[in-house]
């Protein structure tokens, strides 16, 4: 795969096949939640939050009504009533405090359960057979999937919970306090030139007008924040990927004295991060002019709106404070969009990234061009069938010279490759990872181990788990594991069977390859497909592997893609030939990006 830093020069959302609208994004997220194992818990949490918010709204209505008798007692200088109202205040506020704490706990638990369900869904889709491999070659959408499943999913769940609860609470508060404002100003009228012009519900309309103006201005100034946030997250993911890449290849960098060059590469990515961040800062600064300006005006706006009622003698001083408080609650609910616009933009950006990623996981394979596709099917037990196989790549086409191939159980087949052909693409086609081309491959429904060229994949875990991978380690006892290690020349590792380490760093490349063959000994699969994995072995290790394959695994069928000679020919009973198809360029549009280390 091409380096993520270079692949991501355009924003990930630039992949046209994966661009989807807001409704489709929300639908994808709801599908993930419905498929979750914690869906019932989510419903319980949402129901509890609804109850708490509604009860809180009732408490705030009671608190609003408390304003009138409290401030009227002050205007009358009635100390006894003043103390009574203070007692009422502490009772109401104490109840609201309990509700606030309960709402916070429920909201945080909702975030936790949302993240659990979403990440389980994304990881489950990502780890379906061959899907992660294909997504990695699907363009920019496949860059940094870890960022989308970890940081983006976490942020999306937290913002969704906060914004959802906040929006619901604002809606409830507006509904309740709108009625209060209407009643307080139901008979309000303006007197102009000796005539009265009634404006029923004047304070309610003023609150709506005030909040609408702020919302429109916020949207107009801050709408670019969605794209700017998405761009920043993409660049941050590139920086993280670049740093991880350096950390994973420290040996090679240090041996080549390439620190200065790697620093230059990382700094180039950092420049993109800083540029994206500066654009975001500029957008947030412009939005602050609106949000902060309305915030300061709100300090006096409620009094200014309620003042005509007070000066007209229609309400007392306590009524004025009650009306001002109700106006504040109503317009604060309506200004929820203004106060949270930057957060909403952040939420939309993360939703865009996570929903686009899930869409790619669900629909990515269907979006692939199928005009030139190798048919992969489940065949009969004991038969690996290859018919008219032709493989396409950007360098052209390769094909098997033998058009109808049947490899039977226990058979040993060597596939030699002519100069200019790509052995690795043939290996990937046999494993179902490279569908570009024509022909048919029928894979037997039996245990098959694929051994790639170079160092094998060793998962992080105990040595027993590494040997058993991808099977369950409980199925293999100490004696079987020790025998497998011994046959691989790794007897020294036997005491470490249940030790957790990063074995890809603990072992040399030669030992890692030997461990891969020890895995073959332990699992004794019916089939082994090898991509020239014998060539890098030293003479002693090679002799040991040949002996194991010839005797202990005599019943295992082998398809070895590599070179003839070097004392291994006696293993094979048949030779197939991978040849170049001349004058047959591959259609460029039908081919995914490739890893320059494994093929053109």
Report what the structure shows.
The protein has 20 helices and 14 strands. By secondary structure, it is α/β, with parallel strands linked by helices. It has two domains: 16-367, ABC transporter transmembrane region fold (Up-down Bundle), CATH 1.20.1560.10; 375-590, P-loop containing nucleotide triphosphate hydrolases (Rossmann fold). Strands 3, 4, 5, 6, 7, 8, 9, 12, 13 and 14 form a ten-stranded mixed beta sheet that branches. A two-stranded antiparallel ribbon has the order 1-2. The protein has a two-stranded antiparallel sheet with strand order 10-11. A hairpin with a 2-residue loop joins strand 4 (383-393) and strand 5 (396-400). Helix 3 packs parallel to helix 6 and helix 4 packs antiparallel against helix 6. The protein is elongated. The chain starts with a helix and ends in a 19-residue tail after the last strand.
SSE layout:
Layout: H1 4-7, H2 22-34, H3 39-76, H4 79-126, H5 131-136, H6 145-184, E1 189-192, E2 195-198, H7 202-222, H8 225-248, H9 250-255, H10 259-297, H11 301-311, H12 317-334, H13 336-339, H14 341-367, E3 375-378, E4 383-393, E5 396-400, E6 404-408, E7 412-417, H15 423-430, E8 437-443, E9 448-451, E10 461-462, H16 463-468, H17 478-487, E11 500-501, H18 503-506, H19 509-523, E12 527-531, H20 539-550, E13 557-561, E14 574-581
Parallel strand pairs: 3-8, 7-13, 7-14, 9-12, 12-13
Antiparallel strand pairs: 1-2, 4-5, 4-6, 4-8, 5-14, 10-11
Helix pairs in contact: 2-14, 3-4, 3-6, 3-12, 4-6, 6-12, 6-14, 7-10, 7-12, 8-10, 8-14, 11-12, 17-19
């Amino acid at each position: 795969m091409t380096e993520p830093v270079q692949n991501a020069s355009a924003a990930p959302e630039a992949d046209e096949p994966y661009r989807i609208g807001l409704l489709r994004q929300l639908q994808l997220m709801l599908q993930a939640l419905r498929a979750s194992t914690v869906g019932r818990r989510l419903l319980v949490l949402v129901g509890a939050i609804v109850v708490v918010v509604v009860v809180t709204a009732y408490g705030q209505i009671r608190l609003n009504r408390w304003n009138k008798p409290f401030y009227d007692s002050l205007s009358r200088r009635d100390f006894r009533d003043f103390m009574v109202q203070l007692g009422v205040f502490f009772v109401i506020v104490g109840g609201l405090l309990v509700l606030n704490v309960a709402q916070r706990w429920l909201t945080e638990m909702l975030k936790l359960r949302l993240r659990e369900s979403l990440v389980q869904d994304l990881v489950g889709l990502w780890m379906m057979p061959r899907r992660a491999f294909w997504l990695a070659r699907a363009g920019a959408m496949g860059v940094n999937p870890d960022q989308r499943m970890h940081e983006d999913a976490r942020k999306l769940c937290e913002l969704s919970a906060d914004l959802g609860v906040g929006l619901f609470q604002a809606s409830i508060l507006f509904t309740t306090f709108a009625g209060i404002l209407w009643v307080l100003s139901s008979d309000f009228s303006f007197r102009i030139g000796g005539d009265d012009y009634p404006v029923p519900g004047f304070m309610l309309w003023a609150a709506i007008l005030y909040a609408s103006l702020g919302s429109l201005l916020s949207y107009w100034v801050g709408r670019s924040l969605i794209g700017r946030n998405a761009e920043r997250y993409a660049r941050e993911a590139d920086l993280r990927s670049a740093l991880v890449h350096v950390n994973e290849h420290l040996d090679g960098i240090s041996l080549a004295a390439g620190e200065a060059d790697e620093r230059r590469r990382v700094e180039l990515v950092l420049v993109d991060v800083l540029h994206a961040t500066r654009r975001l800062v500029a957008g947030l600064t412009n939005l602050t002019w609106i949000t902060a300006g309305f915030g300061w005006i709100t300090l006096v706006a409620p009094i200014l709106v309620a003042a005509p009622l007070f000066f007209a003698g229609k309400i007392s001083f306590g009524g004025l404070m009650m009306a001002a408080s109700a106006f504040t609650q109503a317009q604060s609910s309506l200004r929820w969009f203004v106060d949270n616009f930057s957060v909403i933009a952040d939420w939309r950006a993360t939703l865009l990234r996570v929903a686009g990623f899930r869409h790619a996981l669900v629909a990515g394979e269907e979006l692939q061009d199928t005009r030139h596709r190798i048919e992969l099917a489940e065949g009969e037990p004991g038969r690996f069938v290859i018919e008219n196989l032709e493989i396409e790549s950007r360098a052209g086409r390769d094909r098997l010279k033998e058009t109808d191939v049947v490899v039977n159980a226990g058979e040993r087949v060597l596939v030699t490759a002519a100069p200019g052909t790509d052995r690795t693409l043939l290996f990937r086609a046999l494993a179902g990872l490279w569908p570009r081309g024509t022909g048919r491959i029928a894979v037997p429904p039996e245990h098959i181990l694929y051994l790639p060229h170079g160092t094998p994949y060793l998962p992080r875990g105990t040595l027993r788990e590494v040997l058993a991978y991808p099977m369950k380690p409980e199925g293999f006892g100490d004696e079987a594991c020790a025998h497998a290690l011994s046959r691989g020349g790794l007897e020294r590792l036997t005491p470490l069977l249940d030790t957790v380490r990063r074995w890809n760093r603990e072992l040399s490349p030669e030992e890692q390859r030997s461990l891969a063959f020890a895995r073959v000994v332990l699992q004794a699969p019916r089939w082994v497909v090898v991509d020239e994995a014998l060539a890098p072995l030293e003479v002693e290790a090679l002799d040991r592997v040949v002996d194991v394959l010839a005797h202990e695994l005599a019943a295992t069928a082998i398809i070895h893609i590599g070179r003839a000679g070097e004392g291994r020919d006696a293993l094979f009973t048949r030779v197939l030939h991978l040849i170049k198809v001349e004058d047959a360029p591959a259609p460029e549009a039908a081919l995914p990006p490739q890893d320059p280390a494994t093929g053109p």
